[in-house]
Amino acid sequence: MSVEIPILADAVMIFGLSCAVIVASHKLRIPTIIGFLLTGVLAGPHCLGLVGASHEVEMFAEVGVILLLFVIGLELSLDELIRLKRPVFVGGAAQVLLTIAVMGLPLMFFDVGLGKSLFIGFLAALSSTAIVLKVLGEKAQLAAPHGRIALGALIFQDVAVVPMMLLVPVLAGASGNPWLALGEMGLKGAFVAGVIFIGARKVVPLVLGAVIRTRSRELFLMTTLGLCFAIALLTSTAGLSLSLGAFLAGLIMSESEYSHSALEGVLPFRDVFTSVFFVSIGMLLDPAFVATHLPQVMGLTLAALLAKTLLAAAAGRILGYPLHVSILGGLCLCQIGEFSFVLAGVGMGHNLLSAMEYQYFLAVAIVTMALTPFLIAGVPSISGRLARLLPVGMSLKAQKDADTDLSDHLIIAGFGLGGHHLARAARASGIRYVILEMNPDTVRRERDKGEPILFGDASQVAVLEHINVSKARILAVVISDPAAIGRIVATARFQNPALHIVVRTRFVSEIEPLLQMGAQEVVAEEYETSVEMFIRVLSTYLVPRGDIERFVREIRAEGYGMLRRPMLNTADACNLGGVCSSFGATVLRVVPGAFVEGKSLIESRLRKEHGLTVVAVQRDGRTRLNPDPQWIFEAGDRVHVFGEQDLISRKAVLFIGEEGESWNGL
């Protein structure tokens, strides 16, 4: 049977195998990129030989690279670069330069030329943005300290790959005088960038605005792709690379208000063509070569994994992170990246790699990428071991002016948005607190503002001892790393069995393990978000506020009640559940002129006539539990009362008039 268009048969084979591989990848919980590489190995000429039109496949792969860089430019706004300037431009630059210096330049001692040595350093310096961000995102570790190290380095690498590709002809010596070539390339780049950015300020917003006003999705998509390919063609005509033009096109559009719409339209095309790119890379690998040179391939793979981990860890230390956190960041960056394949292809065209060297590179790169998900999956256990084994001095910088007489204080582990809010509330309420944070930039910035913040790992005994955890009342854990949360809870509970531990976590499924480790209260973002959602919906439908509050109390009593450790036996819970859900504790501040001001507890008749029980009163930073009947209320007192929630809401006027602050607690 003859096929008029051979590429169609190859496309059917590639997409059919890719679909099967994606299904298998999901079942095995490995990134689909690895599956695409394996698809290429199987379908390629060195294995089953199922694909014949390899040149056409490479053309599709080139389109995939263009779209991949275009999307990276779209997602990488200039504002984001400015916000992450230190992790990107200090940590990322340190990682790339150290890797080039250590894994590339020493090859000169083995009679490898300077240009080729630098080029090999370029290949080794890049990591897989697609794999690392996907795996860290799925495991909710992007906001963790090691995730921040990895993210900063990956962003810098994505930017650095463009000048690396521009330097390949210079490194190959194909441009004659290298300094003249660099100058010419710089002038070309400046001219093209100037034309493009001037056009971006004037032309692109006008064009996209006119297209948007037509309300035609098809026209917008075609215009977006047209701009991408047109700018790529412009840079190519100027003697630069197509990839550089695509990246600049994305960066230009990222500054417009239409970038999200453009990204949404281009993503499906990027996914399809990028998949073909990874398949085409797999087709180049010769399994017979790997089998013949297996010891060398394994040795090079182990060397690459170890060297890249340690060099990226050094970049983490330069940023000021503890050693064990830096090593975890290094583990996330230990693979060879997808842009190394692009760079290697350009280098092959300029004779910077021989056919055998290219096969070694492909084998090492594919194996390191395949191992990455499993290495990142082991980060929690590796982190725990490193935290115990490494010297405490590596993870604690004790400030000389740290408060050593802390007692009855609040410890806040983590200073993101949740930590900020908690510290602000504690400061306004006169509660003594101390903050532990692992981001050195945050520590420096907040200490300059006067916050009692220390740089340290809250999972380490010495760090907790330094802030008198044995005398603390409450530990609030508001960090984003699930594994670190568990270690902090276990360590703090061991150090202070009476400590009240409150934890914020992402998912409901994480509540029970944390309770078993020793936390008293675990707040799941997933659960609280669902509660807030139905509050907004019911409010929009003008459901009475009292009914909404009753629904909230019932849901919290039923939902969290099922998730917490049972404190009563089943029969007691069944008998008391409905009664207890209607009661609560509230803190009310006595304002000047309030009914209770100047009256004693017995004179106010709070329990006898109003149904409220006073369990404690806070005054001048001290707490009086179960005050006696002769206790005189004063303005500014914070009175803890217990009773029915609805009754407390009605009787709050006795203390605060129309204003107050409350919490649903008991």
TrEMBL record:
Annotated localization: Membrane
SUPFAM superfamilies registered for this protein in UniProt: NAD(P)-binding Rossmann-fold domains, TrkA C-terminal domain-like
Keyword Membrane recorded: yes
GO MF terms, alphabetically ordered: antiporter activity; monoatomic cation transmembrane transporter activity
InterPro entries: Cation/H_exchanger_TM (IPR006153), Na+/solute_symporter_sf (IPR038770), NAD(P)-bd_dom_sf (IPR036291), RCK_C (IPR006037), RCK_C_sf (IPR036721), RCK_N (IPR003148)
Membrane topology designation: Multi-pass membrane protein
Membrane spanning stretches: 6-25, 32-53, 59-76, 88-110, 116-137, 149-171, 191-212, 219-252, 272-290, 297-319, 325-348, 360-379
Keywords of this entry: Ion transport, Membrane, Potassium, Potassium transport, Transmembrane, Transmembrane helix, Transport
Ranges for domain RCK N-terminal: 407-524
Domain of life: Bacteria
PROSITE patterns according to UniProt: RCK_C (PS51202), RCK_N (PS51201)
Keyword Zinc applies: no
GO CC annotation terms, alphabetical: membrane
Residue ranges constituting the RCK C-terminal domain according to the UniProt record: 571-659
Major place of residence: membrane
UniProt record similarity statement: Belongs to the monovalent cation:proton antiporter 2 (CPA2) transporter (TC 2.A.37) family.
Name assigned to this protein: Sodium/hydrogen exchanger
